[in-house]
Design a protein that fits this description.
Largest sheet: none
Number of strands: 0
Structural class: mainly alpha
Number of domains: 1
Distance between the termini: 40 Å
Helix content: 55-70%
Strand content: under 5%
Radius of gyration: 16 Å
Shape: elongated
């Protein structure tokens, strides 16, 4: 079975900050697998997407010092 070549996923200004091109491509892939009945593959992708989003948010919040600047911390959390 030949695989179709997909266009690279482009991230727009309307996407949340945690969405990268690779996350968006994985989301699109998962959304195609689920209706096709390939639920095990879709579940694996879902777990990988969750890990990627968690890591991306962790990196974004690492620079904020929550002990001294609580207002900035909550502003960053709301942007997630």
């Amino acid at each position: 079975m030949a695989q179709s070549r997909q266009q690279p996923a482009s991230v727009s200004s309307r996407d949340p900050d945690f969405v990268t091109a690779s996350i968006k491509a994985r989301l699109r892939r998962r959304n195609k697998l689920t209706p096709a009945g390939r639920l095990e593959e879709a579940d694996e992708l879902t777990a990988r997407i969750g890990k990627d989003v968690k890591q991306r948010n962790k990196v974004r919040l690492n620079h904020v010092n929550g002990k001294s600047d609580v207002k900035t911390l909550w502003t960053a959390v709301r942007q997630l």
